[in-house]
Recover the amino acids of this structure.
């Protein structure tokens, strides 16, 4: 049950988690409903599907998309909207975001155009699919960078106004308080309150976490799969992003709000299959990096004692090495080397 992350890629945890969660139709619906409830009511999120996640240009450049969804209209099932959802967790907003989103949309339209041109039976004029560009920003500082193409255009104001109009919807976590998120009728927004409170002091975080867990508890009786998934999200985030000494208390707190023994067993299982916390991972990485740096210095000292000043290219190669095992092997060679040419890196 759940999913595992390689500790080497723990820094990618937020993007992986949100990408997974937003492929669940109910969470995707809740997000768009919070942005535009009228539009969300007209879309059939249960039939949403991911469009192909990459596009290869003629010159073989590679361009990845985050989450491009094709979503049909409820009243016209054969008509679709492309929801181009870009996930951003970084604390420094991307000032080129409006241009990136326009390029993504243009690529989709170009693909549609080519398909229309290659069609054997053109029954009518080309009709481009509507595109809704959305940036889902979960950084804990507000998005203060560009939100429109005009902001990227140089020159006087009258020239900037000539930029294409490409209205992007921004859902910015930092613009919402934990109280607003917890008060929302959406379980997805309730869960995001825990993300919003990540940097709060211990007692405050514990209070927000408890409120979110309590709000999700009721889902276990009538939306079991969604309860399981959102509970996994809460536990994963809290136990990976908070200090390790808070882990036992948070697990115990989660158990208190479960309404039946089966839910308690599932929560217990979730809490023991997470792997290292962010703090533990950073600590381990620090140890490994310290060992690598020390091994580089030791190898250079050994070689200098034997052969004098090292050639700059060799010193650079040693400085670029990150494989601790290879460095240790090179150090073991030093006592028997007849020349630097015999060193195997």
């Amino acid at each position: 049950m759940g999913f595992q992350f390689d500790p080497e890629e723990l820094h990618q945890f937020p993007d992986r988690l949100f990408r997974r969660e937003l492929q669940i139709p109910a969470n995707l619906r809740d997000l768009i409903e919070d942005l535009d409830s009228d539009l969300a009511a007209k879309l059939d999120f249960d039939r949403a599907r991911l469009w192909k996640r990459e596009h290869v240009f003629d010159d073989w450049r590679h361009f990845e998309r985050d989450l491009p969804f094709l979503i049909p209209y409820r009243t016209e099932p054969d008509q679709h909207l492309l929801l181009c959802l870009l996930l951003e967790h970084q604390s420094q907003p991307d000032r080129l975001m409006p241009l990136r989103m326009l390029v993504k949309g243009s690529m989709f339209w170009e693909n549609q155009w080519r398909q229309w041109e290659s069609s054997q039976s053109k029954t009518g004029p080309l009709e481009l699919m509507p595109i809704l560009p959305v940036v889902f920003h979960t950084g804990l500082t507000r998005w203060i960078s560009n939100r429109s193409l005009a902001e990227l255009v140089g020159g006087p104001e009258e020239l900037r106004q000539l930029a294409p109009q490409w209205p992007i919807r921004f859902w910015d976590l930092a613009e919402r308080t934990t109280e607003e998120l917890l008060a929302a009728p959406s379980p997805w927004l309730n869960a995001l309150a825990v993300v919003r409170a990540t940097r709060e002091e211990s007692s405050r975080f514990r209070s927000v976490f408890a409120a979110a867990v309590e709000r999700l508890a009721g889902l276990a009786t009538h939306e079991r799969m969604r309860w399981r998934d959102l509970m996994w999200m809460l536990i994963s985030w809290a136990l990976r992003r908070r200090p390790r000494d808070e882990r036992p208390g948070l697990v115990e707190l989660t158990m208190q709000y479960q309404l039946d023994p089966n839910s308690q067993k599932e929560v217990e299982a979730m809490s023991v299959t997470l792997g290292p916390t962010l703090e533990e991972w950073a600590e381990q990485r620090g140890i490994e990096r310290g060992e690598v740096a020390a091994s580089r210095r030791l190898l250079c000292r050994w070689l200098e004692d034997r052969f004098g000043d090292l050639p700059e290219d060799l010193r650079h190669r040693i400085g670029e090495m990150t494989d601790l095992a290879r460095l240790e092997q090179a150090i073991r060679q030093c006592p028997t080397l007849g020349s630097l040419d015999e060193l195997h890196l």
User: Anything to note?
Assistant: The chain is about 50% helix and 10% strand. Strands lie at 49-50, 54-56, 62-64, 67-72, 80-88, 131-137, 169-172. The first strand starts at residue 49 and ends at 50.
